[in-house]
Amino acid sequence: MKNVCLLFLVCLFNLGCQDFNKFHHVLLYKWSANATNEQKEMFLETFELLPYKIEGMKNVEIATIESSMRDYDLMVHVTFSSRTILEAYQNHPDHQRIVQMADDIILSYSYFQYSTN
């Protein structure tokens, strides 16, 4: 009976931990001086809708940056279930739309990626 209980606890622990295996993509943006509020809203809305369109994209968090060394204005933190999903996202039509919009409204950007286990 002890072995069955131990096996059950190990399985339960593994199921609970599955959500911790994530891949994170963090983008930092500086708005162009000529970016309109309407363009900014469309850009952000496109990001916010991505989890509903891309299976395995878990979350999009958008925040205004209060202070940064390079004067970035905006942080977009995207969480994926795996690096493979991130790679698929790169070619998704809505991501390509974001890239095209950025050409007109983003002065500079940077990004970094990390994973959690």
From TrEMBL:
Name-wise, this protein is Dabb family protein
Oligomeric state and interaction partners are given as: Homodimer.
Domain Stress-response A/B barrel stretches: 23-114
Q: Which PROSITE patterns match?
A: S_R_A_B_BARREL
Pfam entry (one): Dabb
**Protein species of origin:** Ulvibacterium marinum
Q: What InterPro entries does the record point to?
A: Dabb, Dimeric_a/b-barrel, HS1/DABB1-like
**Gene3D superfamilies membership:** 3.30.70.100
